[in-house]
Amino acid sequence: MRYAVMILLLVLAVSPAAAAAQMSGNYLHAFCSASPASADTNQSVSFISSVSGGNGSYTYSWSGACTGSSASCSNSFTSAGIDTANLTVTSGAQSRSVSCRVYIGQAGNTAPVSYATQYDTSGTTPAQRQTIHEWRQSSGLQQSVAALGTTPVAAVPMPVLFGVAPSDLTPNFGDPRDNGTRTHEGEDIMAVKGTPIVSPTAAVVILVTTDLASSEGNAVYTANPGGETFVYYHLDRIGEGVAAGISLQQGSLIGYVGNTGNAAGGAAHLHFEIHNSAGVPTDPFPRLTAEFTPAQKISFLAAILAKTSDPASLSQFLVTNFRSTFAADLQNGITLPPLIMQTLAAVPILPPTPGNLPAGDLMVGSSGSAVTRLQQFLIAKATGPASANLAAAGATGYFGSITKAALTEYQNASGISPADGYYGYATRAIVEANAGTTPAISATTDAGCLPGNNFSVTTGRRCSSAAAGASASFSRNLTVGMAGNDVKALQVWLNTHGYALASSGPGSLGNETTMFGALTRSALAKFQAQAGISPAVGYFGPITRAYLSAHY
Prior knowledge:
By secondary structure, the chain is α+β, with helices and mostly antiparallel strands. Among the domains are: 5-131, Sandwich (Immunoglobulin-like), CATH 2.60.40.10; 166-287, Distorted Sandwich (Glucose Permease (Domain IIA)); 450-552, PGBD-like superfamily/PGBD (Muramoyl-pentapeptide Carboxypeptidase, domain 1, Orthogonal Bundle), CATH 1.10.101. 26% of the residues lie in helices and 21% in strands. The radius of gyration is 28 Å and the shape is elongated.
């Protein structure tokens, strides 16, 4: 069995004249197909147009994998892979553009899977599309797909492994795109570039594409339970070992968050689609309600680290961006992979400086340590009331309306246009040029610099009024049952230095309290053990204060 043809008809543009023609019943329709349905290298392939409607005669223009000016176009290909022929049809004032994508296999090879899709653009509006999926599979693959079962998964777990929860999502399925010429057929999940993406269910990979010039960029398509198809677009890179025909377990690596394809230059995110058994895109948002447990995530991560080509770099990236997540896992008794443990000890926690300010784009909905560093920078710059509000809320690691307001305020103060609260190229350039080494926060610019506290109760950083030694900011011994602003400052310090009291609720980052309880004692004991302070029992006394004074 040879590689079959995948036909994608993509609506690229609709002119005002076309819209008027549609209303009058003369709307131009264009389709494209390839023949034969299977093609080997050096075998002739014909790209055939099917056109109706319009106003008068048709003019054809082929480009890409085939060139010509007739209704059909033929070519052969010397190597296996994906080839795309582009056709523009003109009739009077109307013009339609479609693309035919053909998969070529080496003669005599057995294709692990063939995947055909046809987009029918004949809906009542140019943006309506009916998607039809056909599976042409080897018997072995057919069995793998059938083994997935006939019932779709109702609650789909979050495919981005770290930094995003279902509550962080904003529905965007059906939103207009390209000036209203098409609608958004998936859910955009904003995440830190490079974050692993895993399969929410058992699945079979049916297609992998790496055409960076295409709209999807690096992409993976999988067959999922209930005849559904899950689609992952704009990946920074495809996961190691991911190829058409392989079976995936729940939690298996798909790829890494990126901004390839038509997302190039924009914020990194996963474009995630769910197509039903009829091939029609459905809204993923109402079903993205589940989340893997921390123990499951670490189990999946261990498998990813075992197969990635550069586990050390991936571990460093994860610890840099998700240190608080791993700290919470340790507190909850979850055993981390040895490489993550080593990296936690080796990678320092740095204040925001030009060298470690966020390198990627950030916007409302982003989360992780990159957002934390941006928030710390904005708090330190203290450009006005919005910055003060952010200081009061703390560097939580979540980019919400408070962070957007503070960033907009900084952009206005720095003459950055547009001042829209989006952290992109223009803002990064100004920030990196003017940041310098971020100074200690002054007591007048950080609402967390309370009288008698040399560490902020909102950011965990030293206030500029602090004495030379950190011990001066904690003037008394602290233990279970005590209360005060110094207790809150200690909790914030622990949370912002990798020893989280809790992953959510009271004591978590941004939710610190003034009460010294079991969570504070446990987190403090972990810090003491890591620092070699003995006894590491969670008592905050002269020895621990002296250590902070000497090292922080």
